[in-house]
Design goal:
Elements (H helix, E strand, L loop, with lengths): L1 H10 L1 H24 L3 H29 L1 H21 L3 H29 L5 H4 L2 H21 L6 H6 L2 H13 L5 H6 L3 H12 L5 H9 L7 E10 L14 E4 L6 E6 L2 H6 L5 H7 L7 H10 L23 E2 L8 H14 L19 H4 L11 E3 L6 E3 L18 E8 L2 E9 L10 E2 L8 E11 L26 H18 L3 H14 L2 H6 L5 H26 L5 H24 L4 H21 L4 H6 L8 H53 L8 H21 L1
Antiparallel strand pairs: 1-3, 1-10, 2-3, 4-6, 5-6, 7-8, 8-10, 9-10
Helix pairs in contact: 1-5, 2-5, 2-7, 3-4, 3-5, 3-25, 4-5, 4-9, 5-25, 7-21, 14-15, 15-26, 18-25, 18-26, 19-21, 19-23, 21-23, 22-23, 22-25
């Protein structure tokens, strides 16, 4: 995971620059006004130009990133930052300064919109939340360092606001070098354009290993949007366990893995087995939630995480502990393939995928850009040399170590998920499988009650849909979807449901009060006597205010570190559900301290504690999680487009909140403002509880498929009502 971590750190420099600039302009405006004697409206315009630029660029950044790629847009962001820094350093008048601020907004808008997307598309599921918290951490770190710089420069006799703003060009140049010479293109975007060989090389760099067959198959399947999906409860065993027999007319079936010779036996769980063994059904989890008005999708995702082994760290699959995987490769029989795999796949793959989606930049050769090449390896890798004995017999099975993002001794597509294929009626069906973690099974492997010895099975939940990979269907329709952003895909039930979650949480986050609390923090600390304490050290009021602001941002950093640790353990939904109540209590206590005067010391202490708690718990949950969720819940081919919609809503709400705050303070006062913020936080908690699912440890493609299935499964009940 080292490669993915370093890539995420390099990409997040863009958020560092945004935080740096936000703090710098707040300090520099004091000296800009003194130098140019600007009217109040013009001062607001100088600050607002960055927000305007971010809002404008966001409207087109998503579709363009889906067209040109994520990396070119990050390069453009670094160029915008660099140019804006140089122009601000020169700025002979306010008009040039406004132009520079506009360019700076372009860079900030691109970074805030696309960095979370880029990290989500390059990070393994087990640490995706942790890495996607880095933008919040580096953004706050940039603010702190910027306030330190502004404070230091304010101690001089003649502080230069041009120098304050122009320093931005130095870290921007570093970011430009990283984006040009180090950051790779997103492998998911490359796959969406048919550039399979490039995607494979990027995955090998990110994963630190040669065999990325599972990941390549997953990324290709991620091109699917919508389609009919079903949820099945299966009993799964290794192919060698052919003692599985038909029970009550339910027949067994062979599922093919992503590697050659990789297969296992599965069959549906009967009602009798469901009852006698205490196995859970995901269908029941989906249906039961509708009675309490929680979105069925939320209940479906919750059922996937109940009593599951943690996905983070070095997680060895519990399905067959001696192997680390439910999948097996028979090293002694290199050419043993199911008959239909040899007959139907080998003979039709070349014919049916000649016209698979590629772009103009794709090489003309037929090497790795053929889907078959990276997905169905025909040569054994060096890792196939590691063999261990089969626990039930004398056969020897190969164990592919380091073959997934899960960890050292496991396989699959990440987060404990696995993928298999079934050839049925002229087309392939894709199976996303997750081992059920119910305690009633007393472990992962249980004896199969079929009247014979040695039979073992695993209860797994499977989301089944038509595969992107197989040959053309019997109806002659092309399985491979077209490339490029599809506006019509926004009408797919799963995408619409994801947009409700993404747009809703962005709106509620902006109106939850963080801007008001940060605006009010200097006044709170002044009441607590911090300004008097600092003045005793000979600091001017301006320098003291910069130092207070720096201390405020410093408080965020330890809280964000805690959030990074918990993001992939407790999960996004859980963090929101227990941090938002703290925000509500803090806001209520703040307006009570304004209404009830106990004593100057007590009120100041209470207000200070409330502000600190609010800021710390906000950056632990509501700060980073909306962007993380938005980067996870949309399909690959429309991810940029959907992210642009969510980001545009974010920036518009940011402008509304920023410029309505002074009006609200003058009309209803602090008590009224904090009352509104507290009410919005209550609404936020209800929205998260009812609408926001838990996505920790799940591959992006699995998340979007479950959104599609949940929306599809809940549609009939909505029509009935």
């Amino acid at each position: 995971m080292k490669g993915a971590t370093l890539v995420a750190l390099a990409a997040t420099i863009g958020n560092f620059l945004q935080g740096w600039d936000n703090a710098t302009i707040a300090g520099a405006m004091v000296y800009i006004n003194k130098d140019m004697n600007l009217a109040t409206s013009v001062q607001g315009l100088v600050v607002a130009m960055s927000l305007i630029g971010a809002t404008v660029i966001t409207t087109c950044s998503g579709p363009i990133s889906d067209w040109l790629g994520r990396r070119p847009m990050l390069i453009l962001a670094s160029v915008m930052y660099f140019l804006s820094g140089l122009i601000m350093l020169w700025s002979p008048n306010v008009y040039v300064l406004c132009l520079a601020r506009l360019l700076d907004g372009f860079g900030a808008g691109l970074a805030v919109t696309l960095v979370p997307v880029y990290i989500s598309e390059t990070a393994p599921p087990e640490i995706r939340g942790q890495l996607n918290t880095l933008p919040q951490f580096l953004g706050s770190g940039g603010m702190f360092l910027s306030y330190c710089m502004v404070f230091t420069m304010s101690l001089s006799d003649a502080p230069s606001w041009r120098a304050m703003l122009g320093v931005l060009s130095i870290p921007s140049l570093v970011y430009l070098l990283f984006t040009v010479f180090y950051l790779p293109e997103s492998p998911r975007w490359l796959v969406s354009k048919g550039r399979m060989d490039e995607a494979k090389k990027v995955l090998q760099m990110l994963c630190g290993r040669e065999d990325v067959t599972d990941e390549m198959a997953l990324l290709v399947e991620g091109l699917d949007i919508g389609g009919e999906k079903t949820l099945e409860d299966l009993l799964v065993t290794l192919e060698e366990h052919e003692t599985l027999e038909t029970v009550d007319g339910d027949g067994q079936m062979r599922l093919l893995g992503t590697h050659e010779n990789q297969s296992y036996i599965a069959r549906p769980v009967t009602d009798q087995q469901q009852s006698s063994l205490g196995l859970r059904s995901r269908h029941g989890s989906l249906a039961n939630q509708s009675g309490i008005h929680k979105d069925p999708i939320v209940g479906l995702f919750d059922s996937l995480h109940e009593k599951m082994p943690e996905a983070g760290g070095n997680t060895k699959s519990g399905i067959f502990p001696n192997f680390g995987s439910m999948f097996s490769t028979n090293a002694d029989v290199p050419h043993m393939k199911p008959a239909h795999w040899e007959k139907d796949v080998e003979s039709q793959f070349n014919k049916d995928h000649d016209d698979y989606a590629t772009d103009d930049n794709a090489p003309d050769d037929d090497s790795d850009n053929d889907l078959r090449s990276p997905l169905m390896s025909r040569q054994a890798t060096s890792t196939d040399k590691d063999v261990i004995p089969h626990p039930t017999g004398g056969s020897t099975l190969s164990m592919r170590r380091h073959s997934t993002l899960n960890g050292e001794n496991s396989m699959g597509i990440g987060g404990g998920w696995h993928m298999g294929y079934r050839y049925d009626n002229g087309e392939y069906k894709r199976y996303y499988l997750k081992e059920d973690g119910a305690e009633s099974r007393r472990g992962s492997i249980v004896s199969l009650p079929c009247g014979h010895d040695g039979g073992s099975y695993v209860h797994a939940s499977a989301l089944v849909s038509r595969s992107v990979l197989g040959p053309k269907s019997v109806h002659g329709s092309d399985v491979a979807p077209p490339t490029g952003p599809l506006w019509s895909a926004l009408l797919e039930p799963g995408v619409k449901r994801a947009l409700v979650v993404g747009v809703g949480i962005q709106i509620l986050q902006q109106f939850s009060g963080i801007n008001g609390v940060l605006y009010y923090t200097p006044q709170i600390l002044e009441r607590a006597g911090v300004d008097i304490l600092l003045s005793s050290f000979g600091l001017s009021s301006i320098s003291a205010s910069f130092l207070i602001s720096g201390l405020t941002t410093l408080l965020m950093l330890p809280a964000i570190v805690v959030a990074m640790r918990l993001m992939d353990v407790s999960g996004r939904r859980a963090l929101l559900l227990w941090t938002i109540p703290v925000l509500i209590v803090s806001l209520v206590a703040l307006f009570i301290s304004e209404l009830v005067q106990i004593s100057k010391v007590v009120n100041a202490a209470l207000s200070t504690v409330c502000v600190v708690l609010y800021i710390c718990f906000f950056v632990m949950g509501y700060g980073p999680i909306p962007n993380i969720l938005c980067s996870e819940i949309f399909p690959t081919r429309v991810r940029g487009l959907c992210i642009a919609i969510c980001a545009m809503v974010f920036w518009i709400c940011d402008i509304i909140v920023t410029y309505s705050l002074p009006v609200l303070l003058s009309s209803i006062g602090l008590v009224g403002v904090f009352s509104i913020y507290a009410a919005v936080c209550v609404i936020s908690w209800v929205f998260v509880y009812l609408k926001v699912p838990e996505t920790k440890g799940m591959p992006l493609e699995v998340i979007t498929d479950y959104f599609a299935f949940g929306a599809q499964a809940s549609a009939p009940s909505k029509d009935d009502t």
